[in-house]
Design a protein that fits this description.
Jelly Rolls, about 15% strand, about 350 residues, Arc Repressor Mutant, subunit A, four-stranded antiparallel β-sheet, alpha+beta, six-stranded mixed β-sheet
Length: about 350
């Protein structure tokens, strides 16, 4: 089978923008979003999350991990993981809970409440993004948009492994801009009907998460981990090289030459930030790409092996079983049982210098 591909981009020199490693990872982990409901509350009020009905619906879509998020469209609310101190959120703020822990939103600290009830579509059994009303008093009002993000966590999801177990908060009210616009567009879609509404809400959920993630990276520089490595001059350029040409016959010496440093300096810096050597990172990232291709393309295992830099189907199978735990054929059979409808993904760059 002949596949047309774009030529891989060279790693840029210092001072030039690098290939977007974050977007590369987001594509491979199959990030998908949905806005399931909004809460129109009048103080006093409280509700607990995540909403189990929405989570179960999302899991039926074939994702491995579900991440709840809440955007404050108007008013203010207190939010926090159960057992921890809550934080005050104002209109324009977004809170994301990467580990999907139980959490509480309320009009004031110390108030408790149960999970919200979600109405399901009778035919599809999926949640309807309809407003839920809480509180019967005449206190301050608050509108909360509640959504979920789904992604694959295995075999290698460097982004979500790097996010804090607790929550990250994007202060849209303080900085203004994109978050406020995304929230307003979501409010508008929640009040409309018609074709394409579900897809628009899904994309808006993803955009809110991505903007929140940007704010988090800018406001909370990491000392260690994948996010720190991505922001580091040397390790960031190394990651850009590996991600732009995953099928290249990389060696530690070759990667060091690519980023203009010594073998020892690169190995030490890379391991200090990411907790593993560069070639181990590459092997795990290739397995993430392999699972994506096995699940969503019709390429043979041999074709996938060639595109990811393995000389044969047997070589890929050995590496896949060592890292993932099962053979590529077994993994593909299991995924196709879960996802009967396959979509052909964009081709990866063909291996070079082989």
């Amino acid at each position: 089978m002949t596949v047309e591909t774009e030529l891989p981009s060279p790693v840029p020199a210092p001072g030039h923008p690098a290939p977007d490693v974050l977007s590369d990872v987001l594509r491979a982990i199959r990030l998908t979003g949905a806005v399931f409901f909004s809460v129109d509350a009048v103080a006093p009020w409280a509700f607990e999350g995540p909403a189990q009905t929405a989570v179960e619906s999302f899991l039926r879509m074939g994702v491995d991990h579900v991440v709840p998020f809440h955007a404050i469209a108007s008013g203010s609310a207190w939010a926090g993981l159960l057992g921890e101190e809550p934080v005050l959120l104002q209109a324009g703020d977004v809170i994301v809970l990467p580990q999907s822990g139980r959490h509480l939103l309320s009009s004031e600290p110390g108030r408790t409440g149960g999970p919200v009830e979600i109405q399901l579509d009778r035919t599809s059994r999926t949640p309807l993004p309809l407003p839920i009303r809480l509180g019967a008093a005449s206190g301050a009002g608050c509108e909360v948009i509640c959504g979920f993000l789904g992604c694959e966590v295995g075999p290698f999801n460097p982004l979500f492994n790097a996010l804090p177990r607790r929550m990250l908060v994007a202060r849209g009210a303080e900085q203004g801009g994109a978050l406020a616009r995304f929230i307003e567009l979501t409010r508008e879609q929640l009040t409309r009907s018609g074709p394409g509404r579900e897809a628009i809400l899904a994309r808006l959920a993803e955009l809110m998460f991505l903007e929140a993630l940007r704010r988090f990276i800018e406001a909370s520089p990491m000392e260690m981990g994948w996010l720190a490595g991505m922001s580091d001059e040397l390790v960031g350029r190394s990651l850009a090289a590996l991600h732009s040409r995953p099928g290249h016959a990389w060696t530690l010496d070759g990667l060091a030459r690519e980023v203009a440093t010594s073998r020892s300096v690169l190995a030490e810096r890379f391991a200090a930030l990411l907790g593993m050597p560069p070639m181990q990172y590459l092997a795990r990232w290739r397995m993430q790409l392999a699972t994506d291709l096995l699940g969503r393309s019709k390429s043979s295992i041999g074709e996938i092996a060639q595109r990811l830099g393995y000389g044969s189907e047997a070589a890929l199978s050995r590496a896949f079983k060592r890292i993932v735990g099962v053979s590529p054929a077994h993994w593909r059979q299991g995924r196709r049982r879960e996802e009967p409808a396959l979509t052909v993904v964009e081709p990866l760059p063909e291996p070079t210098d082989r």
